[in-house]
Amino acid sequence: MRTYELAIVADPRLSDEEFVTLVDEYKQLITSRGGEVVREESWGKKKLAYPIRNLSEGRYAFLYLQMAPATAALIPEVELRLGQNDRVLRFLTVRTDLDLQRAAGRAKPGQPVRTIHSEPEPVAEPAAAEEE
Known about the structure:
Helices cover 29% and strands 36% of the residues. The protein has 132 residues and is of the alpha+beta class. It has a single domain, classed as Alpha-Beta Plaits (2-Layer Sandwich), CATH 3.30.70.60. The protein has a 4-stranded antiparallel beta sheet. The longest helix has 17 residues.
């Protein structure tokens, strides 16, 4: 199974019901073609890093998807529909299982995996200057 993360930034002027309907529209498209929506996150309105269509905020939604390689051809169709929808400001689809496979392939058995967030090493305090 292939896993994907789909991020959608929608127009902040949409009501809560319209936003839910928009996201459900794409969830239904994905599930009707054999994909599975594993998890859904809605972050609500957030400030954008830069204005898009003179808007400084956007409504964020994230869909975590799984699908067989045969149904993965659905991704370009979903992206095409997202691009044609005026209510969608931006979107991004990332295939996440490739990153996990690459990371697993680089790790050697018995070798510790490098962590990004590790505990800082204690710093030795400077020796006090001797007074004369």
